[in-house]
């Protein structure tokens, strides 16, 4: 184990949180998210422009010299807590985390890589990393797309988060030079992006089909760039899950503090109080785990793979539990479409699968911390 | 199911043999192949073969309930149409026993026949947005106005309201007495002016239920069931029958949610992991034990010695449906990210096991809420089965209007 | 799945329960069990004589023509429920279940087998099956004892339940004829029975060392006889676990119905009520599972291996949970030596290991019901 | 642990440099190698180096608490004896802060020095058989008799009573007022006539604790701490310090119960099964997360911004100790059937991790009871952290003597 991680929030991080929260309170209330779920435009790209360019979130992880904020995973984690709490339908995870960290794992000295990063950072384009959302750190390099010597891609990638609004797709493919990341614009001939019906209404997925689409292999790309992006994505998703769980807890406490049955405030019933105390303990524990992962990613700690696996294994389950308790303790109203609890339940349950299930991360830990399987 | 000691001979010397004889005589006069369905069902009712344990003249023969299976078997064998009991379950399971017990002769004569034949569908107007677990705290007001009542309020979680001709309704008729004592029970005409039904969409995207808004709805006093102010006691009959209905279905091994997950496990080896294996086996064991527990309850009922275990069945199945469907989503991985579709539909009957894993996961969340939350059921077990004291209650002796809101 | 099992108690079974309960109430109160734990005689052999000969429990499973009661596993299960509730320190499991069913799995026409069964049935001798108490159905035949052509045994069997008071040991050993069961008197030269310090004070275990001890190979014995005994033992242990769990529930309900804190009966606190409701549901579920196993054993159902594995996997865990909640909800007094809760906790936890852990039985089920492991 | 913004300069310009200078000056005069241990400790107290945040003259320098680590590091480096803090934890952690805050000058002067040096061991007489979670319901009576009090009652769960010279004691002095208002706080001489200590054997077989029977025990009024009737408030200071002490230890990765199980797993491959693997990994994750949560609490304290998370730590560690030790017994299989021995011993200090898996399993059961049950802690979290309303209370405004028993 390396140095003790800094598990607190810095003043800068607190300020960033306040900024994001102000925008979301104003622009992304639950009613708006719900209404958008029933529209043809599941993403709120107006909100994304405000956050991306106005608040500089799109380039949080991009170095300042490439037009970004030069911040670290710690700050991105704080943003994800807020976005998770609001189940905000914006492509932060795909563009500002997965695509950005994948590019940073290539050669940022390379002009193409640098320009892609600049465009993502400015919000001029939206990107995503074309892997199934369920891929987590430690999976083998995907074999579903082949590249020829000219960078022409053929194959399919299913269930890609944020692909439906991405201008730029980063596609892991295997070509004559071996596995690498290939970039193309989503309107390139031969590219088809077909939205799927997602369980999580607020993070759409799409299937990407490449039928002789011309792409550019990125300098310095390879399995390590992909693995780095998946590790960062998994570690930061834990903070989003903390945000989801915290919202579920807060909303349930608020509701039970108001609702009366049997002449009493429902929140005064001891069995419910104890269950909420347990949820609270899981949320504060998840927060510590997510902070440790973000700090390890931010400092490039050698402990990062362990910290990320711990955070994902814990926070996925904590978020699902908090969301399930939120629905149950809201009872009837929690089962309705008009109450936003279901959006958080769907996000929590889908996120349990995203970037590696808790079981996947526990299996990773077995190797990382030397607790080998039987036989 | 085999019965051990149940009496199978009823009043008037009615036994299985005699009942079978009557069914055959009925069939000789009403050939299912050539008789119109509605006419057949009406005739069956009039022959006392609808529910043999009901009185003569009301669709029954005053015979033991167990003999109904003889009737059903004969009629099914003859290819007779049934009354589509799933579609009219609220009428059959809740309204009918209540009308039988508390209704006037006129009410029984008016309502039971079309209820049973399915020509008139019934729904239930009990729950309100502010009165869920605390049903007796309901606010819908009924004010006497000559020979009729004027009803205003809002009800919720009403299945089939949009198809229903009649509703069983409870409303507050006296706010000046403690809450359980100021309620009256009515039959409400769903086609009356002022009844507005709106679909209530739920987290699955479907609208199985409705909200019902009642605005100056007139109900004749002749449609009151039971005495004024006695509605809570009348409603207990209705609710008791609801719980029996929910917990009562026989389930073969792997017959519930676990069967779906087990099939996926068997058919898709590429999804298997050691950790999921252990969880699946745990839930398989729990499901099999829940099935045996339900079977034991049925055996107790069959010998006329019902145990308290019935109270726990709904708790167990809610937990299992939720855990198994949650596991199934996780097992499916990438496929679990997807959903069959979010278009709002209005299904006629409830389906816990249909569509896809995501649907099952979401729908199962309701299993611990509808028909009594798991929290209320645990209270009931603790107090009525284990005999633990109830909590301090402040709402039992105060006039309803003076309760804190 | 075969015919629906009879999950109820017959009138005969109810009468048997009443008889056993009367004796135990009279002769085996918790205070007496506790006092005996601190003595040099952990077994209550006086009580055993009363139950074995007086009430005929020792020969419950033995056919009438061999001097037994000719009853079935259903009746033995009822006895075990009562013995479990009282954590009665008597060798019923070792003698009347394991040794008896092992002998019944040999050739009962054989005179030696028949005489052994008669002696066990009459209570004239106490027997046990010399396998580690942790062995469950489906384990491979133990290889720790070898026999020569004359039936002379050499080897060790550790952690044998009821060995310390057994007059007759049935020892699985491998000789020139292959694996089989060998019987010897425990005072045979070359036999050493060394009591171990058990976690469960009320079911002592001992290590058996065989150093050239002369035994008799039983006619018709083989791995099937051992497997049959372990299957019966595991299935019936489930009923003992039901008895332990039921005692824990009843005693906790009783105590919380009397104890006052904060001016209220503690049993009126909703969080505790809900936990007890959950324990209750587990106990009634365990009872159904144990009844199904007993009925399957009694009727020789082909479903018995499944029914036993289900019952053991469920009842072990239910008993531990009930005992843990019993200690916790008794709080301080439940942690003391003077209160019997700890005896039930120790019995429950040891029984979780006995005759196969829940995990062992789940693994068996994977094969029996075709839910194969990964990979 | 790094501190971020903690003030490290105290009154009188005391900073780390100055404190270090004083320690070195002290060591120059009192060579640990040649000074008698008791004499060394007394001199250290008199030099204000015992607990630097205490006032001058009472073992301290009026310096910030954080500077104590500077003192301890210097003294440890010099090979100085310590006061064996684990053995006298109740005196240091509970009695001392209470005496400092509520004691008279005479009491402070009399008690603190031998308390700190360990020459006088302290114990705590709070819990009673009928007053556990509801400590304020205690029955031990103290009746005024001139300059003294006469105490009768029974206390329980008293560590170290058989070694103790003094006890902190709460007793009821006025049964005619509500229970929290009729309690007074005393220092009790454990060598006084009428004090009888009996070992209390627990489920592990050991007797870590005692029962203490008080029969006509005389306590001079000069040994009252705080005002008559104010004992509940005084006791809050004591209990607050107990909770901090229990939750406060730093734990390295695998430093707790999980480390024992992980070592067994690594060293004994023959015990491994797939199902246990998944459970071990889950508990490993939970243990690591609990460790991080505790670390986060310490970092909050270090920057002077304590969060509410501290309330949850004890809950988490109790659950983990129980789950991990339970798993360990199961993992060990046949070895788990055995115990190291049932002879009654009276250990001086608590050992959660010692002996064998069975001991750890049994001892861990106490973790959710001692020092506040997990049920009480959940109430505290729900009410004080989440702000949920308390339940209806009937015992707050009634005279203690009129409460239902």
UniProtKB/TrEMBL annotation, chains A, C:
InterPro entries: Acyl-CoA_Oxase/DH_mid-dom_sf (IPR046373), AcylCo_DH-like_C (IPR036250), AcylCo_DH/oxidase_C (IPR009075), AcylCoA_DH/ox_N (IPR013786), AcylCoA_DH/ox_N_sf (IPR037069), AcylCoA_DH/oxidase_NM_dom_sf (IPR009100). This is Acyl-CoA/acyl-ACP dehydrogenase. Keywords: FAD, Flavoprotein, Oxidoreductase. Transmembrane segments: none annotated. It comes from the Bacteria. Pfam families: Acyl-CoA_dh_1, Acyl-CoA_dh_N. Residues 222-366 form the Acyl-CoA dehydrogenase/oxidase C-terminal domain. Belongs to the acyl-CoA dehydrogenase family. Residues 13-122 form the Acyl-CoA dehydrogenase/oxidase N-terminal domain. Its cofactor is FAD.
UniProtKB/TrEMBL annotation, chains B, D:
InterPro entries: Acyl-CoA_Oxase/DH_mid-dom, Acyl-CoA_Oxase/DH_mid-dom_sf, AcylCo_DH-like_C, AcylCo_DH/oxidase_C, AcylCoA_DH/ox_N, AcylCoA_DH/ox_N_sf, AcylCoA_DH/oxidase_NM_dom_sf, Mycobact_Acyl-CoA_DH. Residues 123-217 form the Acyl-CoA oxidase/dehydrogenase middle domain. The keyword Oxidoreductase applies. Residues 17-119 form the Acyl-CoA dehydrogenase/oxidase N-terminal domain. Its cofactor is FAD. Keywords: FAD, Flavoprotein, Oxidoreductase. It comes from the Bacteria. Gene3D superfamilies: Acyl-CoA dehydrogenase/oxidase, N-terminal domain, Butyryl-CoA Dehydrogenase, subunit A, domain 2, Butyryl-CoA Dehydrogenase, subunit A, domain 3. Coiled coil: none annotated. Residues 229-386 form the Acyl-CoA dehydrogenase/oxidase C-terminal domain. The keyword Oxidoreductase applies. Belongs to the acyl-CoA dehydrogenase family. This is Acyl-CoA dehydrogenase family protein.
């Amino acid at each position: 184990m390396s140095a003790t991680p800094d598990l607190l929030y810095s003043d800068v991080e607190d300020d960033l949180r306040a900024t994001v929260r102000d925008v979301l309170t104003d622009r992304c209330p639950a009613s708006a998210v719900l209404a958008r779920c029933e529209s043809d435009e599941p993403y709120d790209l107006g909100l994304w422009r405000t956050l991306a360019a106005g608040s500089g979130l799109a380039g949080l992880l991009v170095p300042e010299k490439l037009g970004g904020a030069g911040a670290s995973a710690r700050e991105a984690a704080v943003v994800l807590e807020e976005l998770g709490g609001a189940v905000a339908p914006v492509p932060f995870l795909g563009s500002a985390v997965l695509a950005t960290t994948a590019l940073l794992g290539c050669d940022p000295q390379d002009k193409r890589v640098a320009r892609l990063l600049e465009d993502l950072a400015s919000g001029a384009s939206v990107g995503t990393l074309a892997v199934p959302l369920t891929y987590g750190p430690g999976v083998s390099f995907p074999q579903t797309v082949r590249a020829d010597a000219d960078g022409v891609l053929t194959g399919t990638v299913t269930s890609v988060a944020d692909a439906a609004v991405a201008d730029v797709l980063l596609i892991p493919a295997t070509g004559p030079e071996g596995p690498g990341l290939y970039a193309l614009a989503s309107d390139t001939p031969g590219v088809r992006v077909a939205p799927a019906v997602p369980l999580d209404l607020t993070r759409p997925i799409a299937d990407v089909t490449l039928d002789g689409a011309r792409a550019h292999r990125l300098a310095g790309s390879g399995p390590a760039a992909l693995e780095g992006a998946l590790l960062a994505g998994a570690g930061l998703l834990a903070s989003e899950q903390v945000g989801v769980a915290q919202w579920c807890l807060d909303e349930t406490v608020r509701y039970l503090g108001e609702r009366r049955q049997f002449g009493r405030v429902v929140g005064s019933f001891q069995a419910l109080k104890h269950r909420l105390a347990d949820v609270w303990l899981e949320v504060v524990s998840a927060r510590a785990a997510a902070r440790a992962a973000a700090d390890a990613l931010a400092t490039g700690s050698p402990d990062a793979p362990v910290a990320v696996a711990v955070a994902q294994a814990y926070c996925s389950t904590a978020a699902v539990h908090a969301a399930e308790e939120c629905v149950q303790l809201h009872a009837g109203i929690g089962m309705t479409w008009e109450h936003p609890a279901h959006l958080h339940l769907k996000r929590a349950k889908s996120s349990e699968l995203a970037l590696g299930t808790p079981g996947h991360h526990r299996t990773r830990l077995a190797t990382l911390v030397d607790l080998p399987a039987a036989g | 199911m085999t019965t051990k000691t149940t009496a199978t001979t009823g009043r008037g010397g009615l036994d299985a043999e005699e009942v079978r004889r009557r069914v055959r005589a009925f069939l000789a006069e009403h050939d299912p192949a050539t008789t119109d369905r509605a006419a057949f069902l009406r005739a069956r009712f009039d022959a006392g073969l609808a529910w043999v344990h009901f009185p003569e003249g009301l669709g029954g023969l005053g015979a033991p309930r167990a003999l109904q299976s003889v009737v059903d078997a004969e009629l099914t064998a003859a290819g007779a149409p049934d009354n589509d009991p799933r579609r009219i379950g609220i009428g059959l399971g809740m309204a009918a026993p209540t009308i039988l017990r508390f209704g006037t002769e006129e009410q029984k004569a008016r309502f039971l026949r079309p209820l049973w034949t399915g020509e008139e569908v019934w729904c239930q107007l009990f729950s309100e947005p502010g009165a869920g677990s605390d049903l007796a705290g309901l606010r819908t007001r009924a004010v006497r106005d000559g020979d009729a009542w004027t009803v205003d309020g809002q009800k919720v979680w009403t299945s089939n309201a949009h198809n229903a001709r009649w509703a069983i309704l409870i409303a507050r008729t006296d706010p000046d007495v403690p809450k359980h004592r100021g309620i009256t029970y009515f039959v409400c005409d769903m086609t009356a002016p002022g009844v507005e039904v709106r679909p209530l969409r739920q987290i699955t995207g479907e609208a199985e239920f409705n909200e019902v808004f009642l605005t100056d709805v007139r109900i004749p006093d002749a449609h009151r069931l039971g005495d004024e102010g006695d509605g809570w006691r009348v409603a207990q009959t209705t609710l008791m029958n609801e719980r029996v209905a929910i917990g009562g279905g026989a389930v073969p091994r792997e017959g519930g949610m676990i069967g779906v997950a087990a099939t996926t496990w068997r058919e898709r080896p590429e999804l298997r992991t050691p950790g999921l294996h252990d969880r699946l086996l745990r839930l398989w064991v729990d499901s099999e034990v829940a099935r045996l527990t339900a079977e034991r309850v049925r055996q107790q009922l069959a010998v006329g010695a019902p145990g308290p275990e019935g109270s726990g069945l709904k708790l167990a199945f809610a937990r299992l449906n939720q855990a198994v469907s949650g596991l199934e989503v996780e097992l499916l991985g990438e496929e679990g990210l997807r959903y069959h579709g979010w278009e709002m539909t209005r299904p006629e009957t409830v389906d816990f096991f249909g569509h896809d894993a995501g649907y099952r996961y979401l729908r199962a969340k309701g299993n611990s809420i509808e028909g009594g939350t798991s929290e209320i059921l645990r209270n009931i077990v603790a107090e009525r089965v284990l005999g633990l004291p109830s909590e301090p209650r402040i709402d039992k002796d105060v006039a309803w209007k003076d309760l804190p809101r």
